[in-house]
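I have been asked to look over a protein record a colleague put together. Alongside the sequence sits a line of tokens, each denoting a local backbone shape. I have pasted the whole thing underneath without changing anything:
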Amino acid sequence: MNSCLKEELYKGFRIQLNLCGPKTPWTSAQEQTGGCGRVRLARDVRRSSEASPAPSLSTEEQRALERKLKKERKKEEKRRLQEAGSCPARKTPAPRIPTDPTPPSSGATLALDYLCGWAQKRQDWKFQKTRQTWLLVHMYNPDKVPDEHFPTLLAYLEGLKGQARELTVQKAEAQMQALGEGATDGQDPLLLGQAHRLRQVLQLLS
């Protein structure tokens, strides 16, 4: 083959390579298909792999996967706490401020207030059997009914009627007999004061 023919063949081969694009190193896919067709085949394979979507999970599978991941996170957190040798701090409740509630009124306070309300003729005053009973039971005790309230109580007793009046007289006579000589000896001031009140009540109601 002469030199002119060889040059023509080389020129034709270069023209074919230029039509297929710039010279690039061939990959394995290019080697199998050859030339420009090899490049196109490799590109098509890559595009098809990128375009194919990842397989989707069902709802149950997603939930199972989430539970699994949650358990793994808890295990990992527990392991870290054990390694650190500490436990999560518990929230301590806020200290309660001690309140100072108003103490309930005693029976004596309520009964004496009831008696004062009657004496002052308060508009909101009304009869209360419980308060009256307390006054009748404790009226001979100066510790329960002070001396300054006893004249008011005598005025209140003037309004007693019926069975309440009779029972008050009977109890006063029985207590006077129980005191006996102790009320007249004058040795015990407490007994002497009780006897004096008993006489006033008997004198008023008899």
About this structure: The longest helix spans residues 59-84. The radius of gyration is 57 Å. The chain has ten helices and no strands.
